[in-house]
Specification:
Blueprint: H1 2-9, H2 15-23, H3 52-64, E1 82-86, H4 101-106, E2 109-114, E3 127-131, H5 134-139, E4 146-148, E5 166-169, E6 182-188, H6 195-209, E7 215-219, E8 227-230, H7 238-251, E9 256-257, E10 261-262, E11 269-273, H8 286-290, E12 294-299, E13 314-317, E14 330-334, E15 349-350, E16 355-356, H9 368-375, H10 389-399, E17 408-411, E18 424-429, H11 435-449, E19 455-458, E20 468-470, H12 476-479, H13 491-494
Length: 497
């Protein structure tokens, strides 16, 4: 429970904020690594399998420790400071665990050593990895030795030739990256580091080992300016969590939510085809702004919806009761496609000159039978159901008559250009043709916000448990480190709004 609260507090937190939060927490001592004797000069904690937020805290704590030595006479690197390995030269496709020919000839790999009481390190790249301290590495079955290091913290070790500030460690087997004592991949936002590059390295490591290595957001500078933070949503494996949550919401048939509000607040899936092109797909169109209505569909097992509005890419929102900076407002709903783009105020009937803005309950239509009697002959022109608990029940009952085709929900328009304030859950594609469009939107979002948002495949006709599917290979929009992907120019891929 504490870990869940801690991770929630860290959502979209900056590394500096992480440090502040970490300092306010109670430190829980863990058992020392048995293979290394623990002396009075420092306490060593194992970071094997630590959750990402706890790992970031552990690294920040180690950075702040400033002993002159560890244990009896071990180098200070064993219990303090952070060893950083910048990404190698050679481009984004070069494995981050690569060793240079000069290092092979010298017999050791060079790392930079960062500690709060030392001058700021100068790194050759703004993305790289954190090497575990030696006791932790030994406890995890990934041992290594020091070859040279920074005096006097290195104790009896000689300084590294050509770079007295570096730490030299024994070479690792580049063919077996799982044996390397890497703790995390970092990207340094203080020096131009990009999440896309870090995610690319995360995928490299996963492809090579089948293991997920956490990505940490860092600010690397002098003294207390250095800090590492973790955001569970900025990890490539976050998409699996999103898919699982969507499956659970799709199967959740509650009719009321906490506070006796309608069931759509805590269950079901709000899904919208947005298209893609020379606009940000998370922004409401001008037509939507003018009528204060953005059209979605509401997918849930008892809503019997087997198709989206069209086959283009789109957006999935979190449940309406989820915490967010800009909450969405459910204005009205229709059991079928109601052509709201041409309705007065999205939820009304009539014309622009003679509108009737009353919702169904204000017209005395309070049951599915009454709605069918009044509008069954022309359901697309029917009155809008209100957002009340009672009218949501009517909505569900009507869906038993109008099954398979998509329904339509009107969400109040939100301001332009606030993607990081919206409760976005994922981008999606309902057909393979639309996948490039979803990947384009994903990269556009990454460029604007600096955050990852997963692309999911959504097939509403699939059996429960396989409707919302996440594929790591689909996330090319998030790990593309070059120029922006071009918006697909064919209708099937983008279907611009």
């Amino acid at each position: 429970m504490l870990s869940t609260i801690w991770q929630a507090a860290l959502r979209r937190a900056t590394p500096v904020l992480l440090t502040a939060l970490a300092c306010a927490c109670t430190v829980i001592d863990k058992a020392p690594v048995p293979a290394v004797p623990v002396g009075p000069s420092a306490a060593v904690t194992s970071t094997s399998q630590l959750p990402g937020a706890d790992l970031a805290y552990s690294i920040n704590r180690r950075y702040a420790q400033t002993p002159g030595k560890c244990f009896v006479a071990s180098p200070a690197f064993d219990c303090s400071g952070v060893m950083l390995r910048p990404a190698p030269a050679g481009g984004a496709d070069t494995p981050f665990w690569q060793i240079g020919a000069d290092e092979t000839n010298a017999g050791y790999a060079r790392l930079s050593y960062a500690r709060q009481d030392l001058p700021a390190v100068t790194l050759s790249a703004s993305v790289g990895f954190v090497l575990a301290d030696r006791p932790t590495a030994a406890g995890n079955g990934q041992p290594y030795d020091y070859v040279c290091g920074k005096a006097p913290l290195a104790q009896s070790l000689p300084p590294c030739p050509g770079n007295a500030d570096a730490v030299g460690v024994s070479l690792w087997n580049v063919g077996n990256p799982a044996a390397l004592a890497v703790q995390a991949i970092y990207y340094d936002v203080a020096n131009g580091g990009q999440l896309s590059q870090a995610l690319r390295y995360q995928k490299q490591y996963y492809d090579a080992t089948g293991q997920w290595m956490p990505v940490l957001k860092a600010t690397i500078g002098a003294g207390a300016a250095t800090a590492f933070g973790f955001d569970e949503r900025d990890q490539l494996d976050w998409g699996f969590t999103v898919a699982k949550q969507l499956e659970a919401r799709h199967a959740d048939t509650r009719m009321t939510c906490p506070g006796n509000t309608a069931g759509y607040n805590c269950s079901g899936v709000l899904i919208r085809i947005t298209g893609c092109g020379d606009f940000h797909s998370w922004n409401p169109s001008q037509n939507s702004v003018d009528r204060n209505g953005v059209s979605f569909s509401f997918a849930r097992v008892d809503m019997l919806m087997n198709a989206t509005h069209s086959g283009g890419p789109g957006i999935i929102m979190r449940e309406l009761q989820a915490p967010t900076q800009y909450p969405l407002t459910w204005r009205c709903e229709f059991p079928v496609n109601a052509g709201t783009s041409s309705r007065p105020s999205s939820c009304g009937t009539g014309t622009a000159t003679t509108p009737d803005l009353r919702l169904c309950d204000a017209r005395g239509i309070n049951t599915a039978a009454q709605w069918l009697t009044t509008h069954g002959g022309a359901p697309a022109g029917g009155c809008a159901l209100s957002p009340s608990v009672a009218q949501f029940a009517v909505f569900k009952e009507l869906r038993q008559t109008y099954s398979n085709a998509h329904n339509e929900v009107v969400i109040a328009a939100w301001p332009q250009n606030i993607p990081d304030q919206l409760p976005i859950d994922a981008w999606f594609y309902p057909t393979l043709d639309a996948k490039p469009g979803a990947q384009y939107i994903q990269q556009d979002y990454m460029e604007v916000t600096g955050h990852f948002m997963p692309v999911l495949q959504v097939v509403l006709t699939n059996p429960a448990g396989s409707i919302y599917r996440y594929h790591v290979a689909d996330q090319t929009g998030a790990i593309n480190t070059g120029a922006l992907l071009a918006a697909p120019d064919n209708w099937a891929a983008c279907q611009s709004r």
